[in-house]
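User: I want to check something. If I give you two sequences, will you return the structure for each one separately, not as a complex?

Assistant: Yes, each is folded on its own. Here is the first sequence with its structure:
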Amino acid sequence: WRSIQERLTGVPDRVLDAVLGGQEVDVAITAAPTAALMFGAVEPTLSDSDVHSLLELLLEGADPSDTASQLAPLAQMQQDLALPQDPDSVVDQARELAEDTIAALGLPNEGPVDIEAVLGQLGVQLKTLELEDRTLRAVALCGNGLRDLVALNQNYRWGGRPSVDRFSLAHELCHLLVDRSASRRVVVSSGRWAPRDLERRANAFAAYFLMPQSKVDQAVAAAESTHAGVDWVVEIARWLGTSVSATLEQLFNFGYLDEYEIEALREELHWSRMS
């Protein structure tokens, strides 16, 4: 805690209130802050070391100039975007949100989505951190007096692969766009706390942002492997820069696979990983 205290000089009072709640430093957060930490996990279990790392992240994200977020115009468009009660409607909403975001950013139709360049264009700072919780893929940070920031957890059990990290970045972009007001407090919590539909929406957004219809069509057209085989799916996944499992589901969503084909491929992929 002393190392954190030594770095507080020059940080605005409102940011200190956001980080430490104006209380003793051995209390994580006790008052309603202006910041929001959004975890890319459904059931995070944070150790004392993880709490310290997250507080360090908040301090690194402090912006004394209180520069307006470059994401603000996009986020404003979705400010009142309420979650539908129907799970299928959540996915439909995420797809529409992804398509609207792609259009608003004017992303090129050719080639894979460069998610790191997109976040850089929006002024989102990218970082890495090491958390003991291996189920937590990433953390998104936003709030008044704070930079928009996404930090990938280097200890995430499925992390370290470009396809997984790209999906995590797109997932957190969704949180930065539409979930800024979902958490009124910065809290450190363990157990079943994260609204599952928020995570479902962010996952669906990431899938449709990285694999919109136009890009899936391009990847399918460029594929040289035999249709509906594992090699075919792998080739398309490499073109898109996405995982094989996520690509498989998107090919089904866009009608390139029927129910029989996707079930056969799921089983084949499952046993290939077991061998």
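And separately, the second sequence with its own structure:
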Amino acid sequence: MLFKIGDLVTRISHNNDTVFKIIDIKDNIAILKGVNIRLIADSNINDLNPVKKDEEDLTKDDRNLIDGMGEFVNLNRDEYFYLPGKILHIDGDCEYLERCINLYKKFNVMAYGICIKEGEMSSKIKEHLEEIKPDILVITGHDAYYKKKGNFDNINAYMNSSNFIDTVIEARKYERAHDKLIIIAGACGSYYEALIKNGANFASSPKRINIHALDPAIIALKVSLTDINKNIDIMDVIDKTKYGKDGMGGIITRGTMYVGYPRV
């Protein structure tokens, strides 16, 4: 069967478990990007199975996740006004970034999105932090854990975890306090323990599994919309992500939203 860039496919050898978009074809090898999962992979053309659904239908996962977040914005707007925390979202994938920014807009949270290749993030993060001065920083994109390259604690077994870790380290040079700059870092299969150890409040992936494109943004949104005097219900917010505690984890963290009175 002939395939072209932009086609939606699954991989026969992986039981057709994930829907991908073909983003490049070299000889008989297709470069694939998950439609909903933050994953880049490659596959022999002969291993691909065409998907008939259109991409808009496949992003219904976005709607399902958003529908479960109504309590995030269950605010008393009769008497009080609210100043949610400001988000800086750094993403290695421009398409996923757009989807995350649309999520922030839906809930009226101020967010700045910048698309940067994972390998360039650590050298550029300081200038963006100094310019935007966010309360919340998201560092994400694409990653993967390769079991054949080493155990979970071998940084060389990951596609981009070292880049995410270096970016977290640079961000912590800008602001050391975990309650003044909340950092959410990682992507599919990322080195969870190292990201937390080096300064992230939340990170992926405890079980080295894939995560949904919106998972880092869901946590950022909850942090933004939680009262600054209250701790986030860590189990509740992680349960709101696609794969729960297998995909995301973190430390108890305070919210970043100021509440004012009276509302005019």
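Because they were folded independently, the notes below concern the second chain alone. DSSP finds eight helices and 13 strands in the chain. The two ends are 63 Å apart (CA to CA).
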